[in-house]
Design a protein that fits this description.
The chain is mostly helical. It is 62% helix and 8% strand.
Amino acid sequence: MGIFEWVKGQTGTWGPALLDFYYGNAGWINALVMAYGLLLLLSWQNLSRVSDSLVGQILEQAERMQDGKTKGKKPRAVRLGAFTLSWEEACAASRFPFVARQTGLMIHRSSPENVRSLITERDLIQRCSRRLEEMGLHLEKSR
């Protein structure tokens, strides 16, 4: 007994019917799965671009707020709330109309509200922390 016969035996009457449906429409089904996968991949990359834009905004503002005498000193603590983030500008920097988190399968429209719900403060802190410490600033979480 092969694996296909065993699976058909375990799934009852609906198993063979489902398998026959798949065999008859495999081209369409696989094309839809591949198209969704490509859309999801492009959405992941788009959210990454938006996040890069936000990180760029933070680093640009950090360069303006740092003083020239930071070498050898203990890093100065700064909250993320001290930076003004333009979510609209970050969304406008991306040309693709959808965003998605890399750990999820849901695709969202690329709007400032959706992006704000997908990019957490923790994500921004993780992406900025090393470069900010090189500038003499230490980014800490808001309460």
